[in-house]
Amino acid sequence: MAVALTAVEPFAERRRRVSELRTRNGFARQLLDFYGALLGVQETAFADAGSSPPAAEALGAYVAEVVVPSVVDVSVAAGPDRLRGDLMSRLAAEEPRGIVERWMRGDDQPPIDRYLARASLGPVLEALGHDARSACGGPRDARHCPECGGPPQLAFFALAKDDLATGPRYLVCARCAATWGYPRITCAACGEDASTRLRIFSEHGTTSGERGSVVRGLPNGGVTAEHRAFFPHMRIEACESCRRYLLSVDLAVDPAAVPLVDEMAAIPLDLFAREQGFSKITPNLMGF
Ligand SMILES: [Zn+2]
Ligand SMILES: [Zn+2]
Q1: Between 20 and 30 A from 27 (CA), which of 59, 120, 162, 286?
Q2: Counting ligands in written order, which one lies closest to the CA of residue 278?
Q3: Nearest ligand to the C-alpha of residue 198?
Q4: CA of 59 to the centre of ligand 1 (A)
Q5: Confidence at residue 223, expressed as pLDDT on a 0 to 100 scale
């Protein structure tokens, strides 16, 4: 029987995972503490938008007025120094509504604008569903969110229905967090499907017959003194044709993972991919 999600459930799950990972991944603790504080603000924005939804055509104005001020407050209080400085100088020069609306349209933006717009608009789009998401710009093709046209943030493998099958692959939208199905061995940026052009890097090396390489240079040389991997459930999926990559989370390996949170805390994998000359399809909320 399907169980309906309660209003705050996605955020409760994210908070749970943040507290698990902040103990486990010491190198990401500051980032996770900040993200945990931001989640509190986003959860309120999600609940408010769900209980009295704005009209789709007023979305940018609503987010600028109702959500942006508390995202700015929490970022100034709990964010890194540079973020604080960048936010202050941006907001002195620019109206938040324009910043949010450019993110809705999919325009190019400086990282600070993208952070503010994403952090503020994301929970509102999650709460409102289809009509609001349709107000956003972007292609509606296999490599963009069918709901809002946003780019994929990450991929994940869901749990398989029976033990023998491998779970289906999904992409998660960077703008509204919707998920959509996508073929396993296909680049999420350019659609390349020649397996010789696709590269997989993981902490453990090759996974079940796929061409892979071991990620080196992780904290403590990749493996701790206890030989415990930090990211046994994650890998870098890169493409030689377009030189882009994204991170992928396998829920069969760690069913407690919450893909959006795990992706954000996997900074060493991003650094490794960059060292190999790949650039991420979309940097995440924290800019990695
Ligand atoms: Zn979307
Ligand atoms: Zn590609």
Answers
A1: 120
A2: 2
A3: 2
A4: 15
A5: 42
